Amino acid sequence: MLPEQINHQQGIPGVNASGVFWYWNDDVTRQGIAERKSRERMRAIVTALMGVLGIGSLLVFGLSAFLNDASALLTERFWVYPNSTVVFFLFGIFAFLIVWYRVKSSAGRVKLIPKQTATPSDVTVLPSLEMAPEQAQIETVFSKEARESVDRGFAFAADGHHADVSALHLFLGALTADSVQMLLMRLAISFDRMKDPIRRHMAEASQGQTQFGLAARTVLARAFRNAVAERRNQVGSVEIFLAAYQSEPFLEELFASLEVEKEELLNAVAWMRINEQINERISSFREAASFKPTSNMDRAYTAAATPFLDSISEDLTKLAVFGRLPMLIGRDREMDALLRSIEGGRQSVVLVGDPGTGKDTIVSGLAQRMVEERVPKELEDKRLVRISIPHLVGSEADGGAQERLLALMSEVARAGNVILVFENIEQLVGGGGVDLSAVLASELEKHYTFVIASTSTTNYPILEKSPLAQALQKIPVEEPERNEAIQIVESKIGGIENKNKVIFTYDAVAAVVDLSIRYLHDSFLPVKAIQLADEVGLVVGKRGKEWAQVTKEDVAALVSEKARVNVTAVTKKEGAELLNLEERLHERIVGQNEAVKAISAALRRSRTELRATNRPIANFLFLGPTGVGKTELAKVTSEVFFGSEDAMIRIDMSEYQDASASQKLIGGAGEVGILTEAVRKNPFSLVLLDEFEKAHPDILNLFLQVMDDGRLTDGTGRTVDMTNVILVATSNAGTQYIQDAVVAKTPYEAIRAHLLEEELKSIYKPELLNRFDGVMVFTPLSEDEVVQITYLMLKTVTARLEAKGIHLRPTDEAVYELAKLGYDPKFGARPLRRVIQERVDDKIAEFLLRGDVARRDTLILKPQGVVEIEKAVAL
Questions:
Q1: CB within 8 Å of 368: residues ≥ 6 apart
Q2: Are 214 and 93 in contact (CB under 8 A)?
Q3: Measuring CA to CA, which residue among 107, 137, 104 is closest to residue 28?
Q4: Paired residues of 649 in beta bridges
Q5: Three-class SS state of 404
Q6: d(Cα 825, Cα 618) in Å, to the nearest integer?
């Protein structure tokens, strides 16, 4: 079937780009492919033959000249009168000219996609080409690799006797292309994992004479649209691969089964394109440099010299010409706001954002646009120059800062083609004891130049109080979104890989961003993700194997080490430990089964990523009398989940009975807060709020934000992330009721319900109680439980003695006696520690000081506080 017949019967799929309808016109058949490849082979053979003949002719010429009188070559007679030597020389030159022409003409057969003035349309199907006044053929802008992918796709269909070439056939045709192989390597996917599902799906294809019909042409039109939308020069195999994926729901399901979602695949494709753009940057900028002056002169050579400016600055446009600035990924909103401010209001701007969010890279991106002339008229043919503020301000003893600034601005005014960049511009406001903000603001009012400034979020209030606040339009620079951050990291990975001789998978890059967002709170995206990628690349590179693969497990292991919290995949051993977490907690906690179950369930949810990540790991309220294990359970939870009791932040809420005490808790007036600073330094911790009911109601309200959103704003306006803390509040509220209800054998749930509905209403607001994941009631200890606690406490004494090589063996009678002496209904088991210290620790200390007990001896604890020494057998 001819292309015209297919078009007539099925319609013509294509894309409208800048008023031109692009469609696939080539007839893809076995015969057509064979003829085209035959022509290509013949061209290659003829070109190679002419090259060989040219080289042979020149060799004969050289040999003849060597054997004869070589000096004859310099005479006119030799070249004027015909001879065989000259014929060989001329034929050799002629052959090389033919080779050059054929190579150039062969390269010219593959055209480049014209620059587009508008966004291309989606793929549409026209009934007839007559509806498109201007037409172009897509196959002319396909790269050689892409055209071979199309041929392979047809061959797959023809070999299987399938009636139509489908998206899946073209997908298979693109798979073996080098660029697509690199993409699959980044995704850590092999064809072996895909072949069986593809084979089963292919078995359902209709049989018949293979036609390159509507489905195949639609995929190729979509590939063209993808290339145009991404400003590619040609349609490559990656575009065919992606278009086939987008056209075939089966492929999306297949990749999802391989744990590659659509968003992740698009990010990996973006990575490939970013790498190609990086490789093309230097040549493209140098091409633009032929029109962009690299000196301080503009194209018309009308700008004046700026010697003082040049001595304290760096020309960013000159660096951009040679591709020495970082590549700008995304940031369209900030760049549009910057250009709109300059173009619309002719106003200078200040980029305001936290350190590491990319303010400097946005300025670099502007310099690159200026080189490419993709800026408003006000910025065309200008130099973007970064001022060194320390060199401008000078030393504290130097009083000429204002004069230097005025001299600088005078040169800028005379030159007429300079845009100034001031990083950390707040340094001009009282920097070095000299305030230059008023001088600069006054000069900017004259509108002979623009300033692109930057400052951090914390330093912006300094600028806001200065005269520069009115002269600079504020443009916030927030942390990039996840996908944008991933692509920014991707643009840096090539350098990290080359430096450390490693290869990153896409999962590793995504993990660098995801885990840095969640666990590294001491810096901001994208810089913290880039630093993490650099560090994990170094760690993997040091293992000794060149070009080792960096996986998400490598990233998780490093983050676990840095954050001191386990973020790696749950192993079978750890899974078994998590399932038996209650038993581990009960090694130190006696009774209180409901509280232990609730804590264990929360820790399991957190470790298996089944909790909400925008709030704390868990919020618990522990109610009950003193000395029943509330604080002890908090300690053991901190040890089990965060690795140490030292990860517990303990706040005595009885110290915050006045509303003004909130400043002590969250900071303000130049002071850091006890709670906010502790969590900022150790975001993976258990926060224990003792005697919660004694704090002022206004202070309790602070924790509504913590329990709801997992964040707390401190007194300086900074937000502290609290999504990785376990929040435990303890309270003695309702103690008398709990004791009476236990004596009356009231069921646990009834006790808890009465506390929530009656006892606690006068102490806590309902909205606060409702935010706790669990309100756990700790009941008074029974005699048997006190005995168990006594055994646990004596275990601690035993462990300390074992470190000295001494053994302790308490008798049951002595333990029961200690339990009876150490229990008080009002204070629970709290007095027990003092009793053990007086009756056991003190007696053992005396033995040690007198030298009565030595290594391998056994101390036997008996009733009445008697401790006997059983001497070890002599060695």
A1: 285, 320, 325, 328
A2: no
A3: 137
A4: 687
A5: helix
A6: 30
Contact of 711 with 719, CB cutoff 8 Å: yes
C-alpha–C-alpha distance, residues 501 and 849, integer Å: 61
- At residue 843, what is the residue type? K
Between β-strands 866-870 and 858-862, what pairing exists: parallel, antiparallel or unpaired? antiparallel
CA nearest to 471, candidates 369, 350, 580: 350
Instruction: State the first-to-last Cα distance of the chain, in angstroms, to the nearest integer.
Output: 101
How far CA 601 is from CA of 146, 514, 594, 607, 664, in Å, comes to 54, 25, 11, 10, 34
Instruction: Give the C-alpha separation, 283 to 243, whole Å.
Output: 29
- Residue ranges in 682-747 assigned as alpha helix (H): 697-709, 735-743
Q: What is the SS3 assignment for 13? A: strand
CA-CA distance, 393 to 391, in Å (whole number)?
A: 6
Tokens of 513: 């961003």
Q: Exposed, middle or buried by CB within 10 Å (0-12, 13-18, 19+), for 784?
A: exposed
Task: Estimate the share of the chain in helix, then strand, then coil, as percent rounded to the nearest 5.
Answer: 55, 15, 30
CA separation, residue 544 to residues 498, 547, 737 (Å)? 15, 9, 66
What pLDDT was estimated at residue 267? 93
Tokens standing for residue 306: 């700026």
Distance separating alpha carbons of residues 528 and 520, to the nearest angstrom = 8
Tens digit of pLDDT for each residue in 408-452? 999 999 998 999 999 999 988 875 556 888 999 999 999 899 899
Residues in a beta bridge with 619: 727
What six digits make up the tokens of 388? Answer: 């060194």
Query: Which DSSP letter does residue 840 get?
Result: I
Residue 299 has what pLDDT?
Answer: 44
Q: Are 359 and 396 in contact (CB under 8 A)?
A: no
CA torsion angle 229 234 235 236 (round to 10) = -120
Beta bridge partners of 387: 313, 422
Q: What is the CA radius of gyration of the chain?
A: 39
Q: Which residues pair with 713 in a beta bridge?
A: 719
Distance CA(577)–CA(533), nearest Å, equals 31
With beta carbons less than 8 A apart as the criterion, state whether 732 and 624 touch: yes
> What does the alpha-carbon distance between residue 570 and residue 573 come to, in Å, rounded to a whole number?
8
| 802 closest CA partner among 859, 733, 864, 861 | 859
Exposure b/e, 735-754, CB count within 10 A at least 16 = b: bebbbebbeeeeeeeebbeb
Instruction: Look at 205 and 644; give whichever has higher pLDDT.
Output: 205
Q: State how far the Cα of 232 lies from the Cα of 230, in Å rounded to an integer.
A: 6
Strand partners, 162: 207
Distance CA 276, CA 662 (A): 54
CA–CA gap between residue 86 and residue 95 (Å, rounded): 14
Residue 394: the pLDDT is 73
Closest CA to 246 of 228, 226, 232, 217: 226
